[in-house]
Amino acid sequence: MSDRRDGLILGIETSCDETSTAVVNGEDEVLSLIISSQVDLHASYGGVVPELASRAHLEALLPAIEEAMRRAGAGYGDLRGVAVTRGPGLIGALLVGLTAAKAMAFVLDIPLLAVNHLEAHIYANFLQFPELEPPLVAFVVSGGHTLLVHMPAHRTYSGLGETVDDAAGEAYDKVARFLGLGYPGGPVIDRLSRRGDPEAVAFPRAMLRDGSFNFSLSGLKTAVINYVRKSRERGEEIRVEDIAASFQAAVVDVQVDKITRAARDMEVSRVVLAGGVAANTYLREKLEEALEGKGIKLYYPTLDLCADNAAMIASLGWRMLRDGDTSSLDIDAAAVLPLSQGRASS
Ligand code: KG4
Ligand code: ZN
Questions:
Q1: Does 173 sit in the ligand 1 pocket, CB within 6 Å?
Q2: 327 lies in a domain?
Q3: Shortest-distance Cα residue to atom 10 of ligand 1
């Protein structure tokens, strides 16, 4: 049995299509982590159906809470706080988790910690690497977000750039859907690309040399679709591995260039990747290569902590509890929640 002096926090994550619960002891000891994925439920629709997601969370959440507590060997009386994703995400899905967390905080008379999902993705790195400290540059890439931020100190962010249209994960998912590869598209494109030629098709690298830290992916997505349509019309054979690898290379080239420049401009020696797309093996490899020669260290969480999970929510919740950043029980869920409003003090 572990030393529980730090205090146990229960984490709850229901912002999208994973129902996840976790118990952490202090900031970096995960005692249990349950991830109940709804991927099969949404796969035939090619994306997440919000109403189905809410209902599935409702069914899965209470058993997932009980299971997380059981695996942690914890009783409800051991909890020092309950941390929950407040946003951003699907509003109906968020409400399931937030309502359950409020009820628990009220009944157990413990603090409610309302967590910003994007901030928690960044904090998955602090959970995994206890020696990691700011200042750093963080690249937050998921199904809904593409954000490049400077983090000079803990829980302090200044946005450098973001996507002006599609999020990176969204682009992977849309291209995969068009190619008939199923949902979610990121992991499939990543896997297929290993057998493809990234230089087979010269897809556009939008905003590569514009001097900003912004991203644009909708033109690339259209370019892939047009290329495949035209090739099919002409009766040419396309290798889906080559299309996938060329698309991925176009996405990653721009990301690597901008992240590297941001790290240099901000004069940091650490870069962290966060969010579902941080699982991308090509991004990890190419960025590592680019940063290596510059004396900048790259951090990214293991796969289960890159994807949506409640351990990162509970871990950040523990830090919020320590900082006195607790929430009142009338706090609302927020479909849109900027990173700078991570402090949920209202
Ligand atoms: O953070 P996340 O689990 O959920 C959101 O908060 O959006 O991110 C999910 C996204 C999906 O779009 C999925 O296709 C993408 O992350 N993804 C990947 C990879 N694994 C997941 N994208 C590229 N390469 C991957 N290996
Ligand atoms: Zn996420």
A1: yes
A2: no
A3: 143
